[in-house]
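Supplementary notes for students who missed Thursday's class. We covered one full example, reproduced here. Read the sequence, then the structure, then the short commentary at the end.
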Amino acid sequence: MLEDVQPFPIVAGDLGIPGATSVDYTLTNPGPDTPTAGNLGASFEKAVHRYDAVEFTADKRFADRWSLLASYRYSRLRGTFEGFFRDDNGQSDPGISSLFDFPTNDPSYTAIGVPQFGYRGDVRFLGALGEGPLPLDHAHQVKLFGNYAFPIALNIGAGVSVSSGKPLTALAAHPVYGNAGEIPEGPRGSGFETVDGFRTRTMPTYTAAVHADYRLTIHKAQKVVLLADVFNLFNQQRALDYDPDTQTSFPVLNPDFGQPSRVNLAQLQTPRQIRLGIRYEF
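Structure (token representation):
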């Protein structure tokens, strides 16, 4: 794991501790031995990223006019570090994200920062205290695809995908940087109140698609193929995510907290789509 760090805890700047507002960041592998400063009892912790999965698949190659591909995966993605891309707030800064800029094992954040300076959440939930399901943890995933070719030049196919929901964690704005989606207000996956009620995960989602094509022979190798595809056949509109930011910036509250949107983009399944086509083969 590679991230940029500096030695002072978050509250050090507001307390006016000398050197806390003008420090150098070091690119390193943070851990308990990473030096800290400020004498506030803060320390760094080792990052954890643990993925375990088991998958079962069935593959029937095309024969006797039909084929089938099916799979089921059970997986667990847990820890304190997502990787080079943060799905929780959309930050894409490989090696220099805001995750370990400040010590994570820091009791001064809540002991001093919350009552004196109006901080929200607890920076320790970014470390061992908040170890739990990471944002891309989808425990159950099922996929099923198949097709059948009729003797009358008609081919029919269908696909179904099912996925369990993603974990939800409320996030406060960063007291130093001011940007939203930084400090957890509870352990990972502890959930929050949404427009659909209190949830620790989004609802499971599923989508079905169908395909049909009919081949017309014009002359020898010349053919015209009529195609039709329907995506999201049953027009499912479940929320894929909810806005987890309790603040838009420090200390401004977010009126869209818990809505099915992120950064003003709707987080709902794409509505039913129908695609028609024609292809000439020669």
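Commentary. The helical segments are 11-14, 108-117. The longest strand covers residues 49-63. If anything here is unclear, bring it to office hours.
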